[in-house]
Amino acid sequence: MTLDMSWLQALILGFVQGLTEFLPVSSSAHLRIVSGIFFGHDTGASFTAVTQLGTETAVLLYFARDLGRIIAAWFRGFRSAEIRSTLDYRMAWYVIVGTMPVGLLGIVFKDQIRTGARNLWLIATTLIVFALVLAAAEHFGAKRRPVEKLTLVDGIVMGCAQALALIPGVSRSGGTISAGLFLGLTREAATRYSFLLAIPAVVASGLFSIPDAFAPAEQGLLQASGAQLVVATLVAFVVGFASIAWLLRYVVNHTIYVFVGYRIALGVLLLVLLTTTGLQAT
Prior knowledge:
Blueprint: E1 3-4, H1 7-20, H2 27-38, H3 45-62, H4 64-77, H5 87-108, H6 110-114, H7 120-140, H8 152-163, H9 172-182, H10 187-214, E2 222-223, H11 226-253, H12 257-276
Parallel strand pairs: 1-2
């Protein structure tokens, strides 16, 4: 049996998506947790993927000038050796190559991502485990290399880290920022590349999931109408745009331990609820 999503639920989930997409706390985990605890049913992976189009539109607008330079440099670089030595040209290739791991694994493990990976026991565990990874990256990372020092190896490693975010609870930004810090990048450099790296994968995933999101929901899932999907995506866009600006300012002068503590607290709370209440893990 499926349940129709209410407008209040759609607005709340859009807000949650926009607020958590760029923070290293996992937006897909938050959508799964909020819908499971407060609404009693999962919204499904397709709803998450489509609303992420809103947050990625925010990235496109926020970094429009940077993206314009990068895309132009990539095309011009085929004809000019001088352009091929610029950061913009190299960044284009870093994003292309870094996107390959998540694209490949997303296709191979599509069914598992939509089913078993959304188990709340798994999400609680990954929230805690990758909080410790994030803490280790903050503690041991040299944080000396600016974005101008980014290399192809950095792009590949961070791309592999992004692929881990196919598991809700890992966090796309958390995984890539952790990898960047371990590689010696500054927080700002790791965060900026994390945002750029997410664009192709998230946009492709969202577009690919649109037919599934508008199709009848599977048994046990909340069913959003087309209008609700559009509104939730717009809310995610507005909140996400503000979240990008805040996070980029925050990481310049602050550690990311606050997100570590939050992830551990949320993971432990989820484990307690799963153990002591009737909260269903699947």
